[in-house]
Known about the structure:
With 744 residues, the chain is of the alpha/beta class. It folds into three domains: 52-66 and 76-89 and 109-355, Glycoside hydrolase, family 3, N-terminal domain (TIM Barrel, Alpha-Beta Barrel), CATH 3.20.20; 376-564, Rossmann fold (3-Layer(aba) Sandwich); 630-743, Sandwich (Immunoglobulin-like). Helices cover 29% and strands 20% of the residues. It has 20 helices and 31 strands. Strands 3, 4, 5, 6, 7 and 13 form a six-stranded mixed beta sheet that branches. The longest helix has 17 residues, at 132-148. The site of 1-deoxynojirimycin has 6 residues, from loops.
Amino acid sequence: MKRVILSLxxxxxxxxxxxxxxxxxxxxxxxxxxLIKQMTLREKLGQLEQFITRNxxxxxxxxxxxxxxxxxxxxEVGSFLSIRxxxxxxxxxxxxxxxxxxxxPLIFGYDIIHGCKIIFPENLAIxxxxxxxxxxxxxxxxxxxxxxxxxxxxFSPMCDISVDPRWSRVSEGAGEDPYLGSKIAxxxxxxxxxxxxxxxxxxxxxxxxxxxxxxxQAGKDYNTVDMSELMFRDIYxxxxxxxxxxxxVTVMSSFNDFMGVPASGNxxxxxxxxxKELGFKGFVVSDWKAVNxxxxxxxxxxxxxxxxxxxxxxxxxxxxGGDYIAHGEELVRTGRISEKLIDELCREVLVVxxxxxxxxxxxxxxxxxxxxxxxxxxxxxxxRELAAESMVLLKNNGVLPLAEGTxxxxxxxxxxxxxxxxxxxxxxxxxxxxxxxxxxxEERFGKENVLYTKACECGRYKNGLIEGGIEEAVKIAxxxxxVLLSIGLSGWHSGESRSRASISxxxxxxxxxxxxxxxxxxxxxxxxxxxxxxxxxxxxxxxxVLLTWHAGTMAGPAVADLVSGDKxxxxxxxxxxxxxxxxxPVHYNSKNTGxxxxxxxxxxxxxxxxxxxxxAPLFPFGYGLSYTEFEYSDLKVLTPEVPxxxxxxxxxxxxxVGKRDGVDVAQLYVRDIVAETTRPVxxxxxxxxxxxxxxxxxxxxxxxxxxDLAYCHSDMSVKADAGDFYVWxxxxxxxxxxxxxxxx
Length: 744
Ligand code: NOJ
């Protein structure tokens, strides 16, 4: 999408993203081929196995006992994950390079998911900024800090679309939409890998979890995934593909089975689709022991079988299971696996090591002066801005922004919790560097104007009301002008393996809210969470709700910026908030069905709806408020008829009709009215962040290539075809301004 903004004040043209790296592919391949000729089978298998360190002590892959130092010296180790200590990484690298027969360098991988030292908001939160340049910059900063820490490779971006907030890993993704998800996935790859993977401040990206991990049934982590290929191609595949097109050099196979076959042994996924169809040339690492887990899935009798399945599916690197190194030689000796296949798997790993420049200088990562790279002031400032842009104002009865000198009662388990605001994946981040809501509000409003109490606990180990917590909360509320109530779920509740059947606010926090409501004071809920929650009761009771997410190291200053009005909220949801958990999955791009409900807001029978609650979510995809108001008008379809292969052009006028400057996200949705297979009622196909001064008007022009309107047909081909389309533009997925165009 190319977007042109015509402002009454200025004219600006927004550039499109840059091309993928990988300039030295051919040379890397030549070098890898030469090297393989000199390698023994065992050395090749070593390149395909990833080991871990635990508590500073190096151990072999789980389940396999070995003396790692001597394995490294023998050239039987290809990679380590999760080495947090740069000196240890450099020690191992030195051993591999200087003491092994062929001196093949190691590649160090780590989960740098939303920041390395500076922790940015969780990924779902960042996506709510709809700021693609900022997404890229956050990944760039994470890459610089990682590279300096001797980490060459991050297991990110997570490109899994999900529509189920019970699944805790929604915090790591970009929400429910494939179009936005694709833009974000590609931006992250560009941020990590830069324009040259061999630079000492760029790192390899890893597209995960391939594939469809976000569709685990019932929102239970690791659960079965079973869906039509049509749904997969239309909704789930695009972000992975976008990340690959942006040049990502590695992919991680997912834990789940997919249409009956675990991803790590799924040849259709890892070879036919990934390599033959999508043209991927890098290497695939399994998720944690996922090769070995094929025994438990029930498709392999033992480790030998599991290794054979994975190798035949073209999975290059076994994360921790140890089955490749344990059984690889026997598999080749008995003819179950050809050495030619091992060569291919090994070559793809070596090529990435060459691309990273590790052969040229194995110590190029980790040489930098850490104090010059970590926590750079300009990066901390950026983290503060990104955190503010990620937060979403869900409700405001006029209580926000707070006037100067307002006396604040700051209450709740996350208001002064350095650890929780960092979320689930904390990279090499340090809680001690977090600036909390309390610290930042005290600084902004004056210490004497902020009364604080925690009132209850919420986390991994401690939960529930603190003795006397409610009484103290009520007492300070009564002494204040407004209550800022920080409730929701903790950082520990996000990320892997934290699925929940209930996504409501914990009961003790509800009691706290009820007690505070009795004081008659205005209540602003600061909602801490890594997932959409079932919060309709809390929204009704509160005067304002600011969704703060787990916004990272600089969460506190960002909250202070927004509640004070120093900055105007601009985040828009990228995942619908359900009206009730019973609606899940609820997402904007559903299908019409043969019996659509007459109203999305009323319960009704004999239509695709519930008889007890409405269909509409509490807050739809794209939703977000500001302290100003924007008015959309004059939608013009500039190209009412476009040939296939052409570009649809639509313009709309947006005016800031309020009294403050602000930023809105203009969103364009389409609907293919009659197609060969059923299409969603709306699909996002363009968006633009617009900064408008009070009173300013801009004309936004959207350009949609007809190739962006491609969809999966019943023969599984993905193509656009002729027909009529509706188009809407507005500030969320319920946008009202409507037009129509035709593809001929
Ligand atoms: C398991 C997680 O599913 C994956 O996302 C992560 O990258 C690996 N563990 C490595 O820590």
